[in-house]
Amino acid sequence: MPNEKFVDWEKINNGHQGFERLANEFVAKEIGFDVKWRATQLTRDGNKDGIAILYCYLPLAGTTEEQIWMEAKYSLTQQNLSRYKLDSTIVSAIIEGNVKEIIFITNIEIELSVEQKIKQALMNALRYNENNVAFFSRWTLERWLLLHPEIYQRYFPDAPQIPASFFQDLYCTDKISFHQKSYSIQYFTEPLQHLYTDQVYNSFLRIFSPADQTARITSLNAGLKIKNNHWVTDNRIRLKQGINTIELDVECVLPAAVSGPVIRIGDLELFCNRPVEISRKTAQPTVSIASQENIMAAILSVVSGTVPVKGFVFQEIRGAGANGKTRMIEIIASKGLKNKDTIVAAFTDDQLMNSRLLLDVVLSVLFYYLDLESIDVAYLHELKKRGLFISSYLEDLVGAREQPEKLHRLLSKFEAADHILIPPLARLNDKLILLDDLHKLDDSNRLFVNHLLVEIGKSQLTGLAVVAARESYFESAEYLFFRKNNISRAHQLELTIDDVLDSFKKNQLELPELTARVLFSRQKLNCLLLIDLIRQLQDRSEPFDDAGLILFFREFLNGDTYLQSVLNRFAKTDADQDFRAVVNAVYLSSGGVLPSALKDHHKKTVPQLIHFELIRYSPDGRIIPYHDFYTKIFRERYQNRFLECFSDNGYLFTEIEETKYRLMCLFEDEKVSIQHIVGQLRQLSEMHRFYPVIYILEPVFQQENRSAFRDRLGAATYYELYFMYARAIGHTSKHYAGNDEIKQIIQETAFLTDTDIRWIRIKALAEMMNTSFEYLLFDDISRYSVLLDDLFNVLIMGGEFEQEALSAHPSYILADEIRILKAMSTDDFTAGDQLYSNLVDRCLRHGLWDKSGILKIRFARTLYHADLPRAKQLIQEGIAERLKFTNDVDDKWVIIGNFEIAFLMAISEGLPLKNVLNAHERLRTDLFSDYRRAMNALAAIYLIKGDLAAALNIFTQEVDITRAPNPRFRAIRLQLSAAYEYLKGNTRQALDHLDQQSRLFVPLGQSYQDIAAHNIGVVNAKERANHITIYFGGTRKEDIFYIDARLW
């Protein structure tokens, strides 16, 4: 019987030591390795009694070539080993390419599908055949012991008890289950409950045969057909003496119920492990796309090896939405050869899920044969101990696996370089990497994936990567960075009028060519629309005449015909609560739902919803919406469904997702707590967690008509959230500064008298004063300052605010801070210093250590040209005061202050550059605008050192960024570019940059102009010293080019 236990392992003599001797004897007698194994390691699984013993055999003494590894795993508590993590020593040896064979022996049962998947992946990794990887689990060992009672009695105190069924001709320990043919990074697939016609599935069997023989294999169910493969030929299956591990390819040919006996091998009947239904998929019209067929042929010729390639090859599939890019990725994946590790990732609108998916891509490239969930930091440390290169960055990523926001931030720190993620000497199997819907990635994830592809291209890996996305992705700065470093072949996927005509013809429909060219030349179809158009024409009982056909097309293309057909599909789920629960969970999540997360009574609805063409499976096994267009329709038309996802029949989302969806529920549920939502957003904003703020608020403030939200939220709350959103954009976006949003708030609140709104307007005015300083718009500072003072006076005169409280208000302090910085920037040093002293005293009088700390760090920058010792002291005091207030080393101004100190110490005292680089990296997370500004400081250091290549690399990193630089940033960048050209001997270009810089300097004081004029004289001088340094005050030497560090 399949679940029958023949041996009581608790009785084995000497526990794991007895099992060790048993494993050695089994290998000697059954595999023929009668050699002296060297035990290299013994590990205990946690605090349980699971013991793993690792052995190594080196056929040639003293060499590391052609190692054979055996792992013996013994446990009394574990019954089934459904996932397995190979010992780190074996993994290191695999990656370094000197393992010939692996033998795994255990007294625990292993799920056969898992065993086969691991075995196939290991065969790929070792580049050998199936005889080089062997798994021997509980049932195999027990049967061997009972067949050899003399061996059994040497290891156990009792006599073996052998059941009668044990002696039948063929014996199988498994029931039949069906699995998706897996090609994705989710390598371990669960048994399926529903099958579809015209699909091929995997089934796995372990069969004992008393002798080598060929047996007849037949299907006992009319809906199933056994296909030929490595084990089966024309309904005959080859069995060898002993245990046979078999992978069957089973095709579903007819709708049927599958239960009871399913397959017969010889006289042995195999039963289904659970009832399964086979359904016929909804018939779809045949759509022909010539470009799709051409692209498929070109890519598959590389995948199959028909076209020989060297190194790593990159291919692009470009095209508009709903034209079949995803379908092509799935077809390419299904054609992947067994000697290639196929990695598929389909990205979603959930950026945190995308970050996790990108980490899985990296781990799959390195450890394709491991269950990804089993890889943790401790395991990576073990690999490092074995001599395998593991970067600290990879350890950080794995350590943040269960902290989505931290992982997302860490990914943004990745920059392509040699061997950051891929070991330099890795001998990994050929890879087929398929990345779909890359246009859904945000800046950080998009930057990571392109840097990753660059590193893969530079590594010793071989294989093919296919990336599919809409055109916007391939035009992005992040992808342009990839194209600068790699050669990639672009394929354009498009649906042409000729394709439309051909598709009509193949579906026995008439379409005059002239009519098609007139109708479809102005408004392009996509595949979704074309399929629905053909269906509607096929459903008509009578054909159209020419005039009627043209009218129908116009209504279809311009009206709501297609929209209504999609809504009709959703309407089928209205009456059934189980249907509604699954649809809600899938369509309201950002990244789909895992089947295992569904409740049992909801799982039954999945086949029907697939039949309705409302959901589908993603390549990595998630249940996702049928198409993005459907998601858009659902969220626009079924906002009331947001409420249901929090009911007893719904599914839980992350806290951030829940906040986002509750915000979207405001129109439907009066009980939704607005203050709770606002409280969470305030907390996120105060903690500088700007990415979640954007994620939650973007659906509100990216739509054109926001009046409904303003009415529901109330004007005060609406503008508070709008201000949070604008600040988050300013801090994190590579493309927008948030200024337009803040100006909009100021404009819209100009005549509103609500006190709470006035406070928001005050914050916005102070923020624009700060922005105007960065943009060198000193007249605007004065204008916003007048508006701010007038507003404070109104509040004081109205009795809503006291004069003493005014002096301690954050916005008032920020405004005074900007007035100080403006005075110092226009060389009004006496007034600036006096205003500074007054403001510091005021902050300390009110106990505002946090504000005092910020002020000291910002004021210190204005002193770099005149009093460096005082500047250093003020920064150190500022850091200390921020820490006193926040007790947080990750505080924004602590990080900024530490960078300033590291920079100054590197220049003035020659301390290591790595301190500056490390401090700079800390700025990247959530402080992108400061990170970008500080890049100029790094460029200055490289120019001073004469490292022009490193300085140029800093300049070229700007291609990743489309956000327009402010004038202050442009001024220092022009000064640095002039220094670069000066060192290269390009006088004309250097003078041009200095001339542009001088024009930007017009609002600034004479001290800035003097340095610029001095540099022009240096560049024009006949005698060149090619000496560059930072100007820290004193008399300027005529042969030195000075950089003004105040600008950043």
Automatic annotation (TrEMBL):
It comes from Mucilaginibacter oryzae. This is Tetratricopeptide repeat protein.
